[in-house]
Design brief:
Layout: H1 2-17, E1 43-44, E2 49-50, E3 53-54, E4 60-64, H2 77-80, E5 87-89, E6 101-103, E7 115-118, E8 121-122, E9 142-148, H3 153-156, E10 163-168, E11 178-186, E12 190-201, E13 204-215, E14 224-236, E15 241-256, H4 262-267, E16 277-293, E17 298-315, E18 329-352, E19 355-377, E20 395-413, E21 418-440, E22 449-471, E23 477-488, E24 502-504, E25 511-524, E26 528-549, E27 556-578, H5 579-584, E28 591-606, E29 624-633, E30 637-646, E31 649-650, E32 666-667, E33 670-681, E34 684-691, E35 699-703, E36 710-713, E37 718-726
């Protein structure tokens, strides 16, 4: 904490001390706009330099939310991310409470393989040891979603997946007050109320929203209630210095219907065999940032934040092929107390005559603390999140973590067409575990428990390197390539959790590797946008799961350990075109936009002598991901039809086709269609959507614990209507 406060106040002192140098011109520095080409296009890329970040020579993608015709009220990821190539999306949450996406063959679980941020600061549970995101911003509040693939490891952290940054809306810059309300009703008792205000008055820009969402779900025991709130204030203290403060609140309580076996799913996926499982999340996120502009060439940004949050899971975790035995339930409680600060300095300079190069340097300090307890709770069926007794019958741990990072990148603009961007990142990581796990003192009831205390500490430091290049032979065409190293710490969840369906190797170690990609992207006369990429992802000491039989041969369970090295080789491409704009040479008042998104991935385990997994396919990697869609309309109306096909994939490293407990096994190929429409009249807009138009029966995930275990069926056909009023 002392390091955090020293870093924060030191950066604050640097910025505020520069106030004396300010002129008295009362102007407002506007934020850069992350849009390329036509303002009607949903997909795009980041510019070489955005704010105090460098993206030259990197694979970047942008979703412009204003141009998405999708079901925003349910946070439908299948529709929103349809133009992002190579994403495997877990679909088991009809309300869109939690997001599960993974790119290039990485596990989609709660976006855990991406560095997940909101407005540039972390939103995951613990960036070091538990990078899972229980909070996802409402799509209705988003301006855009920015995605940077593996090369983001040098500026944003070490994750293999890269960066996902949710950029929220700000108040309208040209009016003092704007009010928007969106009321949505739909199938399975779904209701969503989203209300926001915003505007600019003098030097102050403000934006705030309040959201309430609830649904009963299409399966029994699936009800949830969620509340979200957010406030953004930014004030231009001078023409060069801006202060921004933000607060995010989220709470939800959800009953979980549990997973299913293959037999139950094939018979009737709408059933539930668990009625005592609950999940609760509280999220409080506070951010304060300073932006200072020395001049047009030099900028400084300081971001600080704190997360005070928690999640509680209550229910029956035993095998799903057995009925609920009744009696005591299992309770897991996490509390997250995190503090972080990041300082960035960016300077443009002339290295070669007539060419502007860009230098970036930054530092990050992070202090996290996760408190994790597991034990018996009551034998009831309600949402009572209280332990029984003083000794946890599972475990009770503190997981402190400290991270210090220094990073730098530089765009060397060699000609007006060619640039090279090398970079490096130094990381110091310290993770600790301090607590106990319980064991039964006697095998016969009434049980008493012994506390087995243990302390672990793992300190490591290393340097990651990367280099990218960009070449633009003519206007509208860019060739790019990048190679960057990646690193991923072991998860706190892997250190000590008692779960009958899964066990963890005590010698588990961190994962290392690198990502290489190369591609071509550009636009043709403002009616065609394309981005075609080949990539190679090398993963050393990959952590995965295999099915193991106990020594007494009485049970089979999932064993999690460093399995082997793996390599993911693939192609990902997006083409989006406005056919009417091309035919009419821009004269048509209508649009006929068509997009095609294709990813082909071959991901296999290598460098292992274990025949059970040698050359087997990596889990959670469909070899084919294909999404396409067509949208027709004008400024008043829009109708969109989307189609998704995801090939067969596996949930464990042995590529098991079937297991009786359904924790492991194949995830069959599936295809889904969605229809969305909107109509605008004056201040009103009516939105409608039919999700899963053909009522496909499918699933995307097998879980070994919450919210399963077992198969988690995806939603059947559903109807949703939204009325929006804007003042």
């Amino acid at each position: 904490m002392k390091l955090f406060y020293a870093f924060f106040f030191g950066g604050l002192l640097i910025c505020t001390s520069l106030l004396a140098q300010q002129d008295t011109v009362k102007t407002r520095q506007l934020d850069s706009v992350t849009v390329t080409g036509s303002s009607q296009r949903a997909a795009g890329k980041l510019r070489q330099v955005e704010g105090t970040s460098i993206y030259a020579g990197k694979k970047t993608e942008v979703i412009n939310m204003a141009n998405i015709n999708a079901n925003l009220a349910t946070n439908n990821a299948r529709q929103v991310y349809a133009r992002i190539a190579g994403l495997n999306i877990w679909e088991y949450d009809g309300g869109g409470i939690q997001l599960g996406i993974g790119g290039r063959g990485l596990n989609p679980s709660r976006v855990s393989n991406f560095n997940t941020r909101q407005n540039g600061y972390d939103i995951s549970a613990d960036a070091l040891g538990y990078p899972e995101s229980y909070y996802t911003p409402p799509n209705e509040a988003l301006d855009r979603i920015e995605i940077v693939r593996g090369a983001a490891s040098l500026q944003y952290g070490t994750q293999f997946g890269g960066l996902v940054n949710f950029q929220l809306k700000k108040g309208a810059p040209d009016k003092p007050f704007e009010f928007v309300t969106r009321q949505t009703g739909g199938s399975f008792g779904f209701f969503n109320s989203f209300n926001s205000i915003g505007g600019t008055t003098g030097k102050l820009n403000y934006y705030a929203y309040l959201q309430y969402k609830r649904a009963d779900g299409w399966r029994p025991n699936s009800h949830f209630d969620q509340q979200n709130a957010y406030v953004h204030l930014d004030y231009a203290l001078t023409s060069k210095l801006k202060l921004t403060g933000e607060y995010t609140f989220m709470h939800y309580l959800a009953q979980q219907p549990g997973g299913l076996t293959d037999v139950d799913f094939n018979k009737d996926p709408s059933i539930s065999v668990r009625d005592r499982n609950w999940f609760k999340v509280n999220w409080n996120l506070i951010s304060l940032s300073l932006d200072y502009s020395f001049d047009e060439q030099t900028r400084l940004n300081l971001r600080t934040y704190t997360l005070q949050a928690g999640r509680e899971a209550l229910g029956i975790l035993n095998y799903i092929d057995r009925v609920d035995p009744g009696g005591k339930r299992d309770l897991l409680i996490d509390q997250y107390h995190n503090y972080g600060a990041e300082l960035r300095f960016l300077h443009n300079y002339k290295l070669i005559k007539g060419q502007t190069s860009t230098f970036l340097a930054g530092a990050r300090i992070y202090k996290g603390l996760t408190l994790r307890s597991q034990g018996d709770a009551d034998a009831g069926s309600g949402a009572t999140f209280d332990f029984l007794g003083d000794t946890r019958t599972g475990s009770d741990y503190r997981f402190p973590g400290t991270n210090l990072a220094l990073f730098t990148e530089n765009i060397f603009q060699l000609t007006d067409k060619w640039s090279i961007t090398p970079g490096a990142r130094f990381e110091y990581i310290s993770t600790k575990a301090d607590g106990y796990y319980a064991t039964k003192a006697s095998p016969y009831p009434p049980y008493s428990y012994l506390r087995n205390y243990e302390q672990k500490q793992n300190n490591r430091s290393f340097i990651l390197f990367g280099i990218g290049t960009s070449y633009k032979p003519v206007e509208g065409i860019e060739f790019y390539a990048n190679i960057s190293q990646n690193y991923r710490s072991i998860n706190f969840n892997d250190l000590r959790v008692l779960n009958q369906n899964a066990r963890v190797d005590s010698l588990l170690k961190d994962e290392t590797g690198y990502t290489v990609d190369a591609g071509i992207r550009g636009k043709l006369r403002d009616w065609l946008y394309y981005d075609l990429t080949v990539f190679y992802l090398k993963y050393n000491d990959r952590i995965g799961s295999i099915n193991v039989t106990s020594p007494d041969s009485l049970e089979t369970y999932r064993y999690r350990r460093n399995i082997a090295d793996s390599r993911n080789l693939g192609f990902e491409g997006l083409i989006e075109a406005d056919i009417l704009k091309a035919v009419s040479k821009g004269a048509s008042r209508y649009k006929l936009a068509v997009y095609t998104n294709l990813a082909l991935i071959d991901a296999r385990y290598i460098n292992t002598q274990e025949t059970a997994i040698k050359n087997k396919l990596v889990e959670f990697v469909p070899p084919v991901l294909f999404r396409t869609g067509v949208s027709f309309g004008n400024k008043r109306f829009d109708i969109t039809l989307q189609y998704s096909y995801i090939a067969k994939q596996y949930s464990d490293a042995t590529n098991a086709e079937f297991t009786p407990r359904a924790v492991d096994g194949a995830v069959p190929a599936y295809q889904v269609m969605d229809l969305s429409a909107s109509y605008n009249w004056k201040r009103f807009t009516l939105f409608g959507s039919i999700n899963n138009l053909t009522n496909a029966k499918y699933f995307t995930r097998r879980a070994d614990g919450y919210p399963g275990p077992g198969i988690l069926p995806s939603d059947p056909r559903g109807y949703y209507f939204t009325l929006m009023y804007k003042l």
